Amino acid sequence: MKRTQSNNRLIQWIDERLPVFSYADHNVLAYPTPKNLNYWWNYGSIAGIVLVIMIVTGIFLAMNYQPHTDVAFASVERIVRDVNYGWLLRYLHMNGASMFFIVVYIHMFRGIYFGSYKAPREILWMVGVTIYVVMMATAFMGYVLPWGQMSFWGATVITNLFSAIPIIGDYIVTWVWGGFSVDVPTINRFFVWHYLLPAIILGLVIVHLWALHVHKSSNPLGIDIKTPQDMMPFHPYYTIKDLYGLGLFMIFFMYFVFFQPNFFGEADNYIPANPMVTPPHIVPEWYFLPFYAILRAIPDKLGGVVVMFAGVLILYVLPWLDTSKVRSATFRPIYKQLFWLFVANCLFLGWLGGKPTEGVYVIMTRLATGYYFAFFLVLMPLVGRLEKTKPLPNSIYEEVAKKCRAKED
Amino acid sequence: MANTPGNNPDDLDGDRRDFLLISTTTLGLAGVTMAAWPFIHSINPAKDVLALSSTEVDLSTVEVGMAITAMWRGKPVFIRHRSAAEIESARAVSLDELRDPQNDADRVQKPEWLIAVGVCTHLGCIPSGQSLGDNKGDFGGWYCPCHGSHYDASGRIRKGPAPFNLKVPPYAFTDDTTIVIG
Ligand code: HEM
Ligand code: FES
Predict the structure, then answer these.
(1) Which chain A residues are Cβ-neighbours of B40 within 8 angstroms?
(2) Using CA atoms, how far apart are residues A84 and A101, in angstroms rounded to an integer?
(3) A240-279: pLDDT as tens digits
(4) Residues of chain B with pLDDT > 70: what percent?
(5) Residue A276 and residue B76: Cβ atoms within 8 Å?
(6) From the CB of B77, is ligand 2 less than 6 Å away?
(7) Domain that holds residue B11
(8) Which residue of A40, A79, A296, A321 pairs with A110 in a disulfide if CB–CB is 3.0 to 4.6 A?
(9) B64 shares a domain with B36
């Protein structure tokens, strides 16, 4: 690693003993980045900032939150009504969870469109999928904490997924609960996990960035970096582009925090949990709906649970299902259309997940589940082999220069 | 020097080294597993949770056709005072029609009292059907709104994703109108 550029003697002295400055220079300031990244490359840094917001608001919420069935609901209401700025902390945290998923979903779709998971970035992608899985667990347990009706029944239904496991399923569920239903021990341990998992996410994010910095960012053309001309330093070019994107995102985020704080929530969660009455229409948080739809598409208990988990875990093997040598969908006319159909299908599944399981909805859910898996298991391997791709440009630099000239004319 | 035969333990006494490596690893893993058990078991139900596991219910006020819900281990238990017609309909079903085949007679101690844990065997919601106006499903028992499971008047699963009948808890009549569940 090179020495720090600074002439300051103190900085040099520290850097020789603990190379934080040359590290920052290497990984942030002079960090070489492809010249042609578009706005779809903003979502990673936004996700990182949302994680920080979640951790900070979470720590301050935890100072007033009480993880006990008798008082949890009241303690959250107290945060909102009596704690100074408690309403702000809670609404930032609550809407932050939804923002986190919006950002991460866009980030993931970006990866699928531009083939970011292809060699040599498979592990980078798989670490990302792990972050996503841990995030889902974190959000699920967080949603249990306010102890409303949806908290309670969501916790009951989701933990009961494990009861589908043959023979040991019921023991596992009792073990997860620490009793015979979702109760005092459950909320206590969920709070502990909810506090702990974000730290694990932070650790995974560091591994994610470590892997990223080995081969650097991919880019919208999906071709490799060949010469130094293809790159530019991260700072100030991408620091400013990331900040600009962050500003727009924060406007979106704050709109919900200040004007529609309960937009993503369910009214039923403002009714304290009642273990004796299930609300007539229970739905998970919106970010789980596509998978909830898949669960309900299968008329068998174990089958539904297996297929639902498969729907998430299949993401791990994406790098090996996609057989195309060309990364970016820009040069893949057929795949590009199938991709957009896939995005629409995911949204459709999400919509279906909130509908009752009857009549046409059941049939539509089965069809959409079929396309979800067919996209990965049939279309990706086949289209990758058969499709005639468009010619790839020679270099990032040439392409960027061409665009600049076109703009000047 | 580093590669002279005498300096490499593998060349010196390979089998002995393998044995030491394998036995140390095995013992180490066994030790870790044993040390893990207290942690794993600590989150199983504690003794006070286990101790809270029986409930007494007075049935004397429950008229024919009525149902009450008792609470046992944090879960509802459905107690339905069945009418002669309900008993008849529950008995008339042939076992081939059932997903989880069980005779009505094997699910009750006294035919007029159906006692079952009111937790859907799919994913644990509480089916409706205890009160008069409730949706009782297509088979006159209970209906689970979460993913559409229908139970009959014997608490047996008839339609929908649930795999099993509503569970019958252990209970005993201590006199004609009192039961102890658990
Ligand atoms: C990965 C980041 C995180 C996610 C996705 C997340 C998600 C959630 C969600 C969905 C809720 C329920 C919101 C509601 O309806 O009120 C919640 C509540 C809560 N979270 Fe988090 N959280 C994260 C990080 C943290 C951290 C780091 C802490 C503490 C150190 C924390 C502490 C709390 C507390 C105390 C509550 C209950 C108060 C409330 O419901 O507003 N969270 N979380
Ligand atoms: S929990 Fe009753 S049908 Fe799913």
Answers:
(1) 175
(2) 28
(3) 999 999 999 999 999 999 999 999 999 999 999 999 999 9
(4) 93
(5) yes
(6) no
(7) 7-44
(8) A40
(9) no
Per-residue pLDDT tens digits for A152-197? 999 999 999 999 999 999 999 999 999 999 999 999 999 999 999 9
Residue B17 pLDDT class (50, 70, 90 cuts) = confident
Look up the ipTM and state it.
Answer: 0.73
In angstroms, rounded to a whole number, what is the distance separating the alpha carbons of residues A357 and B159? 13
* CATH number, domain containing residue B77: 2.102.10.10
Q: Is the pLDDT assigned to residue B10 strictly greater than 70?
A: no
Q: What one-character DSSP code corresponds to residue B131?
A: S
Selected residue of A278, A292, A357, A362 to mutate for chain B interface (largest B Cβ count, 10 A): A278
Question: Over the range A206-229, which residues count as b (16 or more CB within 10 Å of their CB) and which as e?
Answer: eebeebbeeeebbbbbbbebeeee
CB contact under 8 A, B126 and A276: yes
A318, amino acid identity: L
CATH architecture type of domain A38-408: Up-down Bundle (1.20)
Q: Are residues B101 and B40 in the same domain?
A: no
The pair of three-digit structure tokens given for residue B96, joined into one six-digit string = 């081939």
Phi–psi pair at B116, nearest 5 degrees: -150, 150
Contact: A185, B147; criterion CB under 8 Å = no
Closest Cα in chain A, distance from residue B180 (Å): 18
Residue identifier of the C-alpha nearest atom 3 of ligand 1: A54
Are residues A396 and A222 in contact, defined by beta-carbon separation less than 8 angstroms?
Answer: no
Can you give the pTM of this predicted structure? Answer: 0.87
% of chain B residues with pLDDT over 90:
62
- pLDDT at site B31: 92
Catalytic residue annotation of B: 147
Q: What is the DSSP string of A167-187?
A: TTHHHHHHHHHTSSSS-HHHH
